[in-house]
Amino acid sequence: MFSHDNLYSRIVAWLKILLPVAALFVLASLFLFSKSIDPITTVPFSSIDLRDRARKEQLTEPELLGASNKGDLISFRAAEARPDPESASRALLDDPNARIDFSSGTTVSFRASRGSVDQSGTNAELIGDVVIENTLDYVVRTERLIFAIRELRAEAPEQIQGHGPLGRFTAGRMLLEDRSTPNSGESDFHLLFTDGVKLLYDPKETKE
């Protein structure tokens, strides 16, 4: 009886030591195995893409806002801007668009697939499927537009085509500019078409 009780006491004593040690071993093993998992592999981003973005130095959705001394409001935006590798003083743009709200009440908007702007933010060039629209119901398309932001002046030096209140037209060049006098209270917006202007007159559009 004495020996049986003594054996039982020894087993209980050993279990009191072994069970906590076993528990610590299990916890330690879980911790060590978890350290073998690379947390970077669980991140849903491509390391190549991250390196590429860091190298590009791109700016997402840049915006330039301003106003003339006559109260014309100017906004110039793009989906993305990045340094031009061929010119340190110029940035390349993706999906640029601009809008001028003239103090006279006329609004002109521009959009293109790509473009560029100089470091001062005063001169821009829109390239590729350029669309010009205004509140006078003129829509003009061209492949290139030179935009002087401070002067509120835009020039399409290449072939343009469009439609307006009188019908459809084509021309070799187009100029949008403010022809108001220095002392006038508001801007005097003009659209000028030159170099072989052709107009297809449509009475239906005139009536509308």
Largest sheet: 16 strands, antiparallel
Q: Which parts are unreliable, with pLDDT below 50 for 5 consecutive residues or more?
A: 21-51
* Content of β-strand: 35-45%
Mean pLDDT: 75
The structure class reads alpha+beta
- Tally the helices: 3
Q: Would you list the SSEs in sequence order as H and E? A: HHEEEEEEEEEEEEEEEEH
Proportion of helical residues? 10-25%
Gap between N and C termini, in Å?
A: 117 Å
Rg calc: 35 Å
Overall 3D shape:
globular
Q: Count the E strands.
A: 16
Q: What can be said about this structure in brief?
A:
By secondary structure, the chain is α+β, with helices and mostly antiparallel strands.
Can you characterise this structure?
- The chain is α+β, with helices and mostly antiparallel strands and 208 residues long.
- It has three helices and 16 strands.
- It has a 16-stranded antiparallel sheet that branches.
- A hairpin with a 4-residue loop joins strand 10 (139-148) and strand 11.
- The chain is globular.
Give the helix/strand layout.
Layout: H1 2-35, H2 47-56, E1 59-60, E2 63-67, E3 73-77, E4 80-84, E5 87-94, E6 97-101, E7 107-111, E8 114-118, E9 123-134, E10 139-148, E11 153-156, E12 160-164, E13 167-171, E14 173-178, E15 189-194, E16 198-201, H3 203-207
Antiparallel strand pairs: 1-4, 2-3, 3-6, 4-5, 5-8, 6-7, 7-9, 8-9, 9-10, 10-11, 10-12, 11-14, 12-13, 13-16, 14-15
Please give a handful of descriptors for the protein shown.
alpha+beta, 16-stranded antiparallel beta sheet, 16 strands, 24% helix, 44% strand
